[in-house]
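Continuing from the previous page of notes. For each protein in this section, the sequence appears first, followed by its structure tokens. Read the first protein now.
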Amino acid sequence: MGQHFTNEEGEQADIDVAELQEWYKKFVVECPSGTLFMHEFKCFFGVQDNQEAAEYIETMFKAFDKNGDNTIDFLEYVAALNLVLRGKLEHKLRWTFKVYDKDGNGCIDKPELLEIVDSIYRLKKVCRSEMVERTPLLSPEEVVERIFQLVDENGDGQLSLDEFIDGARKDKWVMKMLQMDINPGGWIVEQRRKSALF
């Protein structure tokens, strides 16, 4: 028997009771106050000392903070974990679009996309600090230009939600670039592993 909650698209989603209880235990251990604050979220991703990467994580935090109270409560935490760990591709792309659309006007322009792509490049650099440094083949500016060439179907200089989703589905390179592929699922699993050791 599972518990139901409504996801971002208004659909009912099932979560196993045992899994929900496990998530709650982890949440209480990580957030004894019952809420996750921005500084804790940054610590979770290990970017508190890197301003560029921290900006990207702040954007993610704001997208998960559904009610805009500058904290993530348990229900928001469950919704975020469910999206990251089990969400359908379209749901993840819709969420990613929302993150990219910083001004909330329903379209992504080049400066918005550049800001995120640039932050992702910096964050990936931080995440692989112990690995051999790999130089990206394209600069963030070149990535943005190429995405717009491939995805902006009507040539208006903005990406609509439909263009964003269609472009990601049609082109594997665009999908890789548009998905916020910093592997939060992997980080969550790693955090669970670490907390289980203590």
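Done with the first. The second protein uses the same format. Note its length before scrolling.
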Amino acid sequence: MTYEVMSLDVQHLLTRLGITKCILLGHSMGGKTAMTLALQRPDLVECLISVDIGPTSTAPISEFSAYISAMKSVKIPDGLPRSAARQLADHQLCSVVQHPQLRQFLLTNLVEVEGHYVWRVNLDAISQHLVDIMNFPVFHKPYPGPALFLGGSDSPYIRSQDYPEIQRLFPKADVQYIAGAGHIVHQDKFGEFITAVLNFLPPP
């Protein structure tokens, strides 16, 4: 589960869909995957939007590892109604994942399969590749197209110390912040997020 492998997954999907050039938007891990694809295959990417993540290591500031451990420890009895299962999982997560909106975001991955509640994301694979996920691949050749780095003003994930690396790899980048938004920018300030994305995109 490296960003190079996830980038190849997206490339294969584009080929299967017959898409020769795309506008690529990704959030967090998806943003790092989108950046990797743009740097590997700039011919496929018309423009790039990275939501609340830069091309740098997030290990010093991320609580991701603790969140994964908390999700793996959730225990839901079989046969519970979905609403009760989500409430129980929310209660079990709240001591580690203290922001309610972030818990709700994580709980979108809790699904019922044949009467059992499971996480639809591969938590074991994520745990085994945390170092890769927290870091970012080394690239030397920049992406020449337009790029938007859209962060939340209340999030630590796009920091001023990241600007030199953003400018090195994405020389046409614009960095913007949405006031009052945390890491999940599109959930916290949906209207402002959509406006910022539409203002960045080329006219149809």
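What the second structure shows: The two ends are 35 Å apart (CA to CA). Residues 165 and 174 are 13 Å apart (CA to CA). We return to this in next week's lecture.
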